[in-house]
Design a protein that fits this description.
By secondary structure, the protein is an alpha/beta fold. It contains 34 helices and 13 strands. A six-stranded mixed sheet has the order 6-5-7-11-12-13, with helices on both faces. Strands 3-2-1-4 form a four-stranded mixed sheet, with helices on both faces. A three-stranded antiparallel sheet has the order 8-9-10. A hairpin with a 5-residue loop joins β9 and β10.
């Protein structure tokens, strides 16, 4: 075709150029980039030779050649071309013309390809502004701009900014193009990537599968764009632990890439890296090493030396060497990867924290425990900052991200525990626990626990400060160097050239100082010996004293047991007024969850035999600390539980002779409200009883509620505590607010409660008039419980509600928020309770507390024992679901 056009019109005619442009564009769409480059360059040679076939054609050819260069990894050439066409067009059209958007977008993409994300961000925001102003919010090009801007936010780990842009883009493209269009597929793919980074792997899987189906329809099964979609799906399978499927898909994508793009192309590196990751996670570390080495070779040849994907490659290679014991190779690779991350992204990027995690693990395996602890602390503080940002997205993303990074918290807690640094371990666990509670009930204002950071010992602080100073210097120098590199494309002044030379020298000095700092830190921690031990003790002793002072104020027979679960054990921190010690049980986390789930099923069936399961769990969870508690004279054992342990009624565990409810008082402890434990209880109660007896849509009638509340609040027919009763239509939001603010130390609510983890809007209490009082209403509409000693939620599934979370975070959710609104304690249930037995237990508990001057937890315990003594209620189903959270006095 080109020959015919040339023969008919001549080389310099616009018809010839238009035909060549059509040919080149088709080569590009077919991923035949070499031929596309050849034809585009031929078109531009007309322009350079003085021919003027039309500026539109020349600009289009220039822009498309830049796209082709970018696809081939020739990023500098792409940037230069985009700048050239932009200079011409800005002069011709003015800076605010919408036709500039294509060129700005192309330049931004080229910057993205070399990890100059801040530069790309400014350009992409300008493109979006131009298109929204000229084309409107619901235009296809506006959707493209939203999508592109979101990609840069993802690179900068600003997921809270990326997600709403991607959702807007997808909605526009689905409306304009339909559900099976390439533009729609691109938005779906990018949204999947963001969900992946947030740890929402099941969401990412569904999106990646949908994206791949569309790519196969639009492009065919062997197109490079389809291979990119395959790579995304493979990476998600790897995260979901289906490593064999991930490996198969990465190999499939690699064959497509190698055939169409050549063996050195960036996407080849991505597939090879995926293959390495799958082999690594399958334990085939020696097979992963040559794959990671190939990735590094490709990237170092194609990318600037401080590109963050080179850091990823170095870190992966280091981890494989670490797993086979090649620490001499692993640690320098980690250090180099960390240096690149600090220069390119900064120390607050989660990518930096992940490398720090792995370096800490290498130090740990070398026995350099104190250096490992310091690094783990540093990475946790980065994750805390990331949580604070992600909290702006939503509760689901918060929980996913918590799951993604919680392993580091657990590893550090275990390491500190092994070193006898129990107070610090407890702080780490409290931080993770408090974060989980915030994830579950999204609170407002400065109560967000993500704003807290883990502290350092004096020695750790010295080295962290030195490290941070040098790392920040690296980042500043690197940023300045990149600015000069950009300017160099247009020419540098003599002063700028001198500065560029000085920067290179300064960067080299800073790099050596950075590496030296990491090495010196290892040696310093290793050499301090006894002095280090003294410092750790001095640092920990204050936190330990504060906790033990709290326990002593509650009585010398009070102990706190804090559980934490890792992959292969359950750890237990035991603190009494006199001692603090650690114990553990070796058990696979999945096996523990299986046993808890099996026991829960038995507890739900009053005809079952629960003893074998109750005794097996006792051996795992309580037997290791039994003697410690006995020697301490503990009678009240406060429990701080982790993960699925929160589904477990510890009072229903059995030591072979008796249930633990017969042995100890076992209230639930929540560290975020621990100061309320010191509050004195009101000696004599008055009660407000509120309940629902009738059926409502989706809720069955609670026929035993009238009898239950009648047995509690004194009336002519009976009851044990003076007060007021409000049932059904009398139980309104206004009435609930009224009694919550009056002098009623006991609020007893017998109704349905539906709990959906993470949302205040969908979690609600059913009122007697059929209205739904959400947790958001309770928090924001001046519901205060400052006069309430105990808020009881009875006859409803208050512990688990309608939205069960596999890690048990919802168990404490309402307890925490109610205490934050002023209640000293909350009594709730772990499963739907039986009407008749609940009425008996509640009346007995309140009578014992009112007439015998017992603590709340002791009155509950005695009532449980009494109910258990009745043959028809002996099964734990009837008496075990009740848990008391907070001030148990």
């Amino acid at each position: 075709m080109a020959a015919i056009l040339t023969q008919v019109y001549g080389e310099n005619h616009s018809q010839t150029v238009g035909g060549l442009l059509y040919l080149a564009n088709n080569y590009y769409r077919l991923a035949n980039y070499q031929d596309a480059q050849r034809v585009y360059e031929r078109i531009l040679s007309f322009y350079q030779s003085g021919a003027t076939p039309g500026h539109e054609l020349i600009n289009t050819a220039t822009s498309n050649l830049a796209l082709t260069y970018a696809a081939m990894g020739k990023h500098d050439e792409a940037i230069a071309l985009y700048k050239r066409v932009l200079k011409v067009e800005e002069k011709r059209l003015g800076p605010d013309h919408v036709n500039l958007a294509d060129y700005l977008s192309g330049l931004a993409t080229a910057y993205t390809n070399i990890a100059m994300h801040n530069e790309a961000l400014l350009l992409k925001q300008r493109v979006l502004d131009l298109r929204e102003k000229a084309l409107g919010e619901n235009n296809a090009l506006t959707a493209e701009s939203l999508n592109n801007l979101a990609v840069t936010y993802v690179h900068l780990a600003q997921y809270e900014n990326a997600l709403p842009l991607q959702e807007r883009s997808l909605a526009i493209r689905e409306r304009i193009f339909g559900l099976e269009h390439s533009e729609t597929a691109q938005s779906i793919f990018n949204l999947a990537t963001t969900q992946f980074y947030l740890g929402a792997h099941q969401k990412a899987l569904a999106l990646n599968q949908r994206s791949l189906r569309i790519h196969e329809i639009v492009y065919g099964p062997l197109h490079p764009r389809t291979a990119i979609a395959i790579t995304g799906l493979a990476t998600t399978y790897d995260a979901l632990l289906d490593h064999e499927e991930a490996l198969r898909l990465h190999e499939k994508a690699l064959l497509i890439f190698e055939k169409s793009l050549g063996v050195t192309y960036a996407y080849v590196a991505r597939s090879v890296e995926g293959m390495g990751n799958a082999n690594y996670r399958l334990g085939r570390f020696r097979s992963a090493i040559p794959l990671y080495e190939r990735v590094l070779t490709i990237r170092e040849a194609a990318l600037p030396p401080t590109h963050p994907t080179i850091a990823d490659g170095l870190s992966n290679l280091a981890s494989a060497h670490r797993e086979v014991g090649n620490y001499r190779l692993a640690i320098p690779f980690y250090q180099r990867a960390l240096l690149i991350q600090e220069i390119s992204r900064g120390g607050t990027h989660p990518g930096s924290a992940r490398i720090v995690d792995n370096l800490a693990r290498a130090y740990q395996q070398l026995g350099q425990i104190n250096a490992a602890i310091s690094l783990f602390k540093s990475s946790i503080n980065v994750y805390q900052g990331a949580r604070e940002q992600i909290s702006r997205i939503g509760s689901t993303e918060l929980r996913s991200y918590t799951d993604l990074v919680s392993k580091t918290y657990q590893e550090l807690a275990a390491l500190l525990t092994d070193q006898g640094r129990l107070a610090e371990a407890q702080i780490v666990l409290d931080m993770l626990k408090e974060d989980e509670q915030f994830d579950f009930i999204r609170r407002a204002g400065n109560a967000d626990p993500r704003r807290s950071r883990i502290g350092y010992t004096a020695t750790e602080q010295t080295w962290v400060t030195r490290y941070r100073q040098i790392a920040d210097r690296l980042g500043a120098l690197g940023s300045e160097e990149r600015e000069l590199e950009k300017q160099a494309k247009l020419g540098l002044t003599a002063e700028q050239k001198r500065r560029q030379q000085a920067l290179a020298a300064d960067l080299e000095v800073a790099r050596k100082a950075f590496e030296s700092t990491l090495t010196d830190m290892r040696e310093a921690f290793a050499s301090r010996g006894p002095a280090r031990a003294v410092e750790v003790v001095e640092t920990s002793v204050q936190a330990q004293r504060e906790l033990q002072s709290l326990l002593k104020s509650l009585g010398d027979d009070t102990a706190l047991v804090q559980y934490f679960i890792t992959e292969d054990r359950v750890g237990m921190l035991v603190t009494t007024p006199g001692i603090q010690l650690a114990r553990n049980t070796k058990v696979d986390a999945k096996e523990l969850n299986r046993q808890i789930g099996a026991y829960r099923r038995l507890l739900g069936d009053p005809k079952s035999n629960p003893l074998p399961a109750a005794q097996a769990l006792y051996q795992l969870l309580v037997a290791p600390i039994e003697k410690d508690l006995e020697q301490a004279g503990a009678r009240t054992v406060m429990l701080s539980l982790d993960g699925a342990l929160r589904y477990l009624p510890f009072g229903a565990l059995h030591d072979g002779k008796q249930y633990l409810a017969q042995r100890w008082k076992m209230p639930m402890y929540t560290s975020v409200t621990r100061e309320k434990l010191r509050d004195a209880a009101t000696p004599t109660w008055q009660a407000a009883g509120l309940g629902v007896t009738r059926a409502w849509p989706e809720f069955k009638p609670l026929t035993g509620v009238r009898e239950e509340i009648g047995g509690i609040v004194k009336t002519a027919a009976g009851g044990v505590i003076p007060g007021e009763i409000y049932l059904d239509a009398a139980f309104t939001a206004a009435r609930f607010k009224d009694v919550s603010q009056r002098q009623f130390p006991l609020l007893h609510i017998a109704s349905h409660f539906r709990f959906s983890p993470g949302t205040e809007v969908n979690s609600f209490l059913l009122l007697g008039d059929g209205q739904q009082l959400t947790l958001g209403d309770i928090r924001t509409q001046n519901y205060r419980f400052d006069n309430v000693d105990l808020l009881t939620l009875s006859a409803c599934d208050t512990g688990l509600g309608g939205g069960r979370d596999e890690r048990g975070r919802e168990i404490e959710g309402f307890g925490v928020i109610a205490q934050q609104q002023g209640a000293k304690a909350v009594l709730a249930t772990l499963w739907p309770v039986a009407d008749q037995s609940t009425a008996v237990l509640m009346a007995d508990m309140y009578r014992r507390r009112q007439t015998q001057n017992l603590t709340k937890i002791e009155a509950l315990r005695q009532a449980q024992i009494a109910l258990q003594s009745q043959p028809k209620y002996a099964h734990p189903y009837y008496w075990a679901p009740f848990i008391l959270m907070g001030n148990w006095k």
